[in-house]
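Please review the protein record below. Tell me whether the encoded fold seems credible here:
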Amino acid sequence: MKWKISVTVALTGALLATPLLSISRSKSQNVDPGVAIANMDVRAVAASGLVEPASEARQLEATVVGRIVKLNLDEGDRVAAGDVIAEIENADLKAQLARAEATLAARNNELLRLKTGARKQEIEESKATVREAEAIAVLARSNFERQSALAERQIAAKETVEKAVADRDAAEARRALMSERLSLLTAPPRHEDVAIAQANLEAANASVDEIRAQIEKTIIRSPLDGIVLKVFRRTGETVSNLPPTPIVTVGDTSRLRVRADVDEANVAQVAIGQTVSVTADAFRGKRFRGTVARIAAQLGRKNFRSDRPEERLDTKVLEVLIDLDPDARLPIGLPVDVIFDASTAIYSQAKLSDVRMSMADLRPVVVR
């Protein structure tokens, strides 16, 4: 005889109801998952939660010490990703940036001048100087030769010949000097000089990047498209980074979700894709639908308290994130009650395996 299992699904009005699985058997045989789903007796699982943006509420904090000089948006204002929300005083940093940018420009021009070489006019001037030196050298050699010939005939004095020799040597030296200067102007730059100029340029560029990064820390930008949910500080107030001072909170409210705390005794009855009903005291008579999107991997303490007298504070909970349907419009931070559809949870769990499961896999849940 096969397993015989009776099923009834009842969603109780009590929000703290616990799941109960009732199974009757006659023989130890395997049960098809689909048959087990159709024959299970379950009750709803309830939990408390808070409404939050699907993007999560992003709290933007100060990373520097200073005074807020600009606050461009207020609570409820829409903001796009990258928009400047607030600015902390940074006039000194901007002055340092201007100086660093000037140094960077100078280092860049030095490298460019080194690679470009001398100007055409400088080269032409040097060539003219070389020609002039060559002409003087030719004249000095001619005068030396003439004086030497006269000295052999004992017509020129020895002192005159010596002066002609000195003039010739000086003219030759000047011609050689001018030629070397021309060669230096037309030669390509040395690799060492280029490397030094390049290093100076990179150091100046790094200095500019460093100061810009410091300035960016004084500018509070929105990380996403959404609205300003809360403003903690106003223009003129001082903020610090030890500990970080919260300035604003932003979030994308185009889609909402609920962060729920599921009691440890009920975690087996919650699964990804499970449908839920969400209710709130402020919206009596209304139910909002949602789907379990993410389940934490570890139990922890409660994220929030409902302030109900019967609430237990020493129990561990499993954090569950629920995506609400697009038409749900609820205030951020609103406390809500969540009722999990147990039948969809069991169906989701059964779909995880294609093998037939034995009766040992369908252990009753012990109600404490």
